[in-house]
Structures are given as C-alpha cells and as structure tokens.
Amino acid sequence: MNCPRRLPHFHAAKFVPAAIISLFFLTNFTGFFFSPAFRPTVNAVSQIVEMIPADIPVSGDCDLDWTIYRAGQEAGVDPRFIHAVIRQESRYQPKAMSQVGAQGLMQLMPATAKRFGCDDPHDSAANIKAGTKYLAWLLKRFDGDVALALAGYNAGEGAVDKYKGVPPYNETQNYVRKIVANYGKSYLQVVSPDEAKPTFAVTQPSEASVGI
C-alpha cells in the first residue's frame, strides 16, 4: 500500500513570526550579517610598473641607470644622450679625473659643477644631475643642435661662439663625431619634465590587478 509522505509537524510554529521579527532587528540594527568582516573581498588595485625601455643603454649598475633616467626626465633631456656623453667622458667611472681637472662621471670642471649645483663632483647623483642640467642649457643655447651642444660641453660655449661652429680642435671634433655616431641624432629638443616621458619614451607602464 502506497502511503503519502507526511510533512513533519512543528509544534513551535506559533513562534515563527516572533523569530522573523527578531532576525529583522538583529540584521538591520546591528549590521551583523552585513559587516565587512563577513563579506568576501573582491576588490582589485591597478598598479603602474615603471620600467626603463630596453633600447636605453645600460651602465652595468642598475642604481646608476635609474639616476641617469631620472636626471633626464627632470631636465627634459633624452637619457640615451646622457648615456652617450657619460660613456665617452668617463666610461661610467665615478672617480674619473682628467689631466685638466675634470671630475666624475660627466667630467665636470669644478667651476661648471658649482655653476649647476654640484658641490661634490664625485657624488654620482649630483654629478649626473649637474652635467645633465649643463647639457640642457647648451642644447637650448644652440637651438637643439647636438653637435654644437657637445662642442660647447667639451671646449666651452665661448669657443663655439668664436668659431661659429665646432672648434677646429682635433679632440673636440673627434669627441663630437663619436658621440653623435653613438647617439644617432643630430637634433634634440629639451622638453618639460611632463613631456619627457612621452617624448623620449622613458616609461613602459603596465597594469597589474592585485586582489585585496
């Protein structure tokens, strides 16, 4: 004989309305079930990872490369150009000193170093910052002409004015020729720090989602 399935009989059914009302007050006034502590977290944060582009030369010292990168960004000078100058001047040797007294990575003469805010030419960061400021100044003075800016850096801007071009000194002419060939450009415009990133492609941002 088939028997129908009987539903359980709750003797306490009369207490159901009171229980529902109590649960309502508990959840809405205390926020117990809706507390952030009981809520799963699904938020994501986008992080911008800044990188030095692969086509910018490297010195073999990551910290030094970032110092050059930042100096170029701050002064609006292509860091590739700064690398080309440092490579020719000192081969990335921070303690380098020439026979005529030029010092540090960018081989600054004491008067030039002080002129552009460097008190210790052997302080790599200060030397690069001052040398980059000097390059920016020369590029502006010679309307972005890389050869004339380099000639001024090597022989002094007065010599460039005197000869109305690259001075007829073998050292200066070889210096200019090597760096221009290494850098690969004959014109370079100095830009504002905000324009430096897109102009010289000095960042490669990428977004990464991180769950919190």
Task: Walk me through the structure.
By secondary structure, the chain is mainly alpha-helical. The chain has a domain at 62-193: Lysozyme. It is built from nine helices and two strands, in the order αβααααααααβ. Strands 1-2 form a two-stranded antiparallel ribbon. α6 (146-155) packs across α7. It is elongated, with a radius of gyration of 33 Å. The two termini are 61 Å apart. Mean pLDDT is 83; it is low at 1-8 and 204-212.
How are the secondary structure elements laid out?
Layout: H1 16-29, E1 44-48, H2 62-75, H3 79-90, H4 110-115, H5 124-141, H6 146-155, H7 157-163, H8 170-183, H9 193-200, E2 207-211
Antiparallel strand pairs: 1-2
Kindly list the characteristics that best describe this protein.
single chain, 212 residues, mainly alpha, two-stranded antiparallel sheet, 2 strands
Structure summary:
With 212 residues, the protein is mostly helical. The protein has 9 helices and 2 strands.
Report the span from N to C terminus. Answer: 61 Å
Strand fraction equals under 5%
Strand order of the largest sheet: 1-2
The tally of helices reads: 9
Helix content: 40-55%
What is the N-to-C order of secondary-structure elements (H for helix, E for strand)? HEHHHHHHHHE
CATH topology annotation of one domain: Lysozyme
Report on the biggest sheet: 2 strands, antiparallel
CATH architecture of one domain: Orthogonal Bundle
Class from secondary-structure proportions: mainly alpha
**Rg on CA atoms, Å:** 33 Å
